[in-house]
Amino acid sequence: MSTTTSNESRSRGKAPAGERLADWADGRLGIYSLAKANLRKIFPDHWSFMLGEVCLYSFIIIILTGVYLTLFFHPSMNEVEYHGSYVPLQGQLMSEAYRSTLNISFDVRGGLLIRQIHHWAALVFLGGMFVHMMRVFFTGAFRKPREINWLFGFLLFVLGMFTGFTGYSLPDDLLSGTGIRFMEGAILSVPIVGTYISFFLFGGEFPGHDFVARFYSIHILLLPGIMLGLVVGHLILVFYHKHTQFAGPGRKNTNVVGMPLMPVYMAKAGGFFFLVFGVIAAIAAIASINPIWTMGPYRPDQVSTGAQPDWYMGFAEGLIRAMPGWEINFWGHTLVLGVFIPLVLFGVVLMVIAAYPFLEAWVTGDKREHHILDRPRNAPTRTAFGVAWITVYMVGLIGGGNDLIATHFHLSINAVTWFVRIAFFVGPVIAFIVTKRICLGLQRRDRDKVLHGRESGIIKRLPHGEFIEVHEPLSQEQMYTLTAHEQYKPVEIGPTVDENGVERKVKGSEKLRAKLSKAYYGEDSQIPKPTVEEYREITSGHGHH
Amino acid sequence: MKKLSARRRHPLAAVVVLLLALAATGGLYAAFAPAGRAQADDSAQSLTIEEGKKLYEVGCASCHGTGGQGTSDGPSLVGVGAAAVDFQVGTGRMPAQQPGAQVQKKPNIYSQAEIDQLAAYVASLGAGPSVPTKQQYDPAGADVARGGELFRTNCTQCHAFKGVGGALTKGKFAPDLKDVSAKHIYEAMQTGPQNMPSFPDTTLTEQNKKDIIAYVKAINSDQTVSQGGLELGGLGPVSEGLFAWVFGLGALIVVAVWVAARTAKAKKS
């Protein structure tokens, strides 16, 4: 190919520089076929599809600013005396890690701004992942073929939590030290292996002289490396699966309606990156985050009230704060249930949302691919489940900030804690029921709109005196959009006796599945969408509307 | 003499005598009155205590009892000292407005002279810490860094890193230290008001207290320079997380909606 083009170009004069460069690169990288296959990739347009981009861009911002911080940070716990610019800590003994973080904040040019961008971007990154995950959840975008990608995303969220936590621990200030002490306590509460893991992690008795250096490797190398790999895998799968889209005329399970990557999304995504960077940088320039100099250096004999982790660990903090301090003593050993149960719950709460797509796939028994998104109201049980899960999470967050809620709303901290204890069990149930009812109400409204049209607000008086409101029929497109979703039928167990009259043994899992399926798709869980016949009958003139 | 006795029956004689008598009385009063006041100065303490007792009977006795011995509504004031009175009344906590988990701060309605009188009365009930002098509490020249270390060792458990306060059990709380004067901080440490433990000079020396006051003034007062921008209440990760969600993610979602709404228009062919 290259020989023929070079012959042609020689006959017609020199090719433009860009073409020659592309040719040169293609000969070595094979970019033509790659570009041809992907540059015209179509992406659908919806603001909620950009939430993932927020995460990607804040991740890039974190890496860029993090590299800058590594140039000045000393991951060492050697004891040194402070003689930098911050007066209220002059002459204090502290670890080298803390001193270098103070130097980054006060003596390195741009250091404090970069530190604040790094930290704010981390909070936004985790928040973005949370919101992105909920978008995927509530629209059913996790269904086949995207279950693996859901797990990739979930892993990114969990790894993001731990990367954030290890980063928060590095400055070795009094707040982060208290956080690590908390983590050590959680590790120690694990039966049998807890003490071994703690001694292994800290290189002996807490705090030791190793954890900053170890957390440093974990924070800047191990976890971000895994995350980078997962991000690439996540994006490759998005390309491979193609993006999902909301139902609408012309949008099918087999196509994607939208704009091509090149040039539309290249420009949009590129511009959006700078907008994200701009917003985060503006926040970092306006508001202080983690002012470690007011915390002081970490010393295990000091502690402060109002010691909380960053928000993404807040619900774990809440679980611990709300848990009664139970413990069991036997044969000289102590099982600290007051810490161990919250530790287990922390994992369970996260695992539940990770495993949900597989549960739903099992209940529906649906093996088809889904590329059209659900509107949350059209999957009431899933939506209600999601809201119940968020409720548990939020209750945990309230628990994590129980002291600040108490002081700022003039409540008793004991009352707030009791609220959290009760709401942890009752809240999700109420949220589930309420959400499901709201979804069904919205489904009924959609049904009414399709069958009777939109309320126009125009009141008409008929000759015989009756008042009616004029209903405007929906457009064809709107009606399509409102009725495009598919409604499952509950799975039946099937005949328990085969054709020969032999009784079949019904497995417990089958019964469970039938029960769940009924809960999901039974009469009480979805409003039948209007059929063509119903619509015809009403619009044929027999109706009065 | 003849002249005088000749006029002693004069009709105006009585008036003259009366005038002389008045002048003499007035003069004597004028001569002795300042001396009388000077005498009262010598027993100023007892007079102040007297005044303080009157104020006490109006504002305090209903809870603390008529002799300061305490009732079921208020503790005994015997031995709490003048410093405690100066703190409690000076910050407006006493007289208490209403019972509750903790007596709240409110605008103080007593003048400093009245507070001193009350303090003198309460101090007369039993020996206790006296009101510190400016020389004792003035943080000028104190070791701020040493104060920070002491603050983190003794105070942050309740008042938090930045001295913004924190929650205690059952609706009680440690207050924000921002607008508290150096004298009141000193007195609070000395006397341990309400739920606060007391730190007498045997625990925290006068110099220690000065250092702590200097540190509190450095990190949480009007003169504090916020190094990194808005402090978000100095509350730590909870307010930071809320800010990140509302203004970080909130702004980014608004931006996303804006970008998504500006799409390339397909050409109608």
Automatic annotation (TrEMBL), chain A:
| Enzyme Commission identifier(s) | 7.1.1.8
Catalysed reaction(s)? a quinol + 2 Fe(III)-[cytochrome c](out) = a quinone + 2 Fe(II)-[cytochrome c](out) + 2 H(+)(out)
The cross-references to PROSITE patterns, in alphabetical order and at most eight, read: CYTB_NTER
Output the GO biological process annotations, alphabetical, semicolon-separated. Answer: respiratory electron transport chain
Transmembrane as UniProt keyword: yes
State where the protein is found. Answer: Cell membrane
Q: What GO molecular function annotation could you give as one example from this UniProt entry?
A: quinol-cytochrome-c reductase activity
Domain Cytochrome b/b6 N-terminal region profile stretches: 21-247
So which cofactors does this thing need?
Answer: heme
Question: PANTHER family, from UniProt?
Answer: CYTOCHROME B
Q: What is this protein called?
A: Cytochrome bc1 complex cytochrome b subunit
The gene that this protein is the product of is: qcrB
TrEMBL record, chain B:
Where does it reside?
Answer: Cell membrane
Residues the entry annotates as binding heme c 2: C155, C158, H159
What residue stretches are annotated with the Cytochrome c domain?
Answer: 47-126, 142-220
What Enzyme Commission number(s) does the record list for this chain? 7.1.1.8
Q: Which residues bind heme c 1?
A: C60, C63, H64
Q: Which InterPro entries match?
A: bc1_cytC-su, Cyt_c-like_dom, Cyt_c-like_dom_sf, Cytochrome_c_Oxidase_Subunit, TAT_signal
Q: Which ranges does the record mark as transmembrane? A: 242-261
Gene3D superfamilies the record matches? Cytochrome c-like domain
UniProt modification remark: Binds 2 heme c groups covalently per subunit.
What this protein catalyses is: a quinol + 2 Fe(III)-[cytochrome c](out) = a quinone + 2 Fe(II)-[cytochrome c](out) + 2 H(+)(out)
Q: Name one GO cellular component term.
A: plasma membrane
PROSITE patterns per the record?
CYTC, TAT
Which UniProt keywords are present, listed alphabetically? Answer: Cell membrane, Electron transport, Heme, Iron, Membrane, Metal-binding, Repeat, Respiratory chain, Signal, Translocase, Transmembrane, Transmembrane helix, Transport
Q: How does it sit in the membrane?
A: Multi-pass membrane protein
State any single GO MF term: heme binding
Q: Name one Pfam family in it.
A: Cytochrom_C
Tell me where the signal peptide lies.
1-30
This protein's assembly is summarised as: The cytochrome bc1 complex is composed of a cytochrome b (QcrB), the Rieske iron-sulfur protein (QcrA) and a diheme cytochrome c (QcrC) subunit.
- Protein name (database record): Cytochrome bc1 complex cytochrome c subunit
- What broad taxonomic lineage does this protein's source fall under? Bacteria, Bacillati, Actinomycetota, Actinomycetes, Kitasatosporales
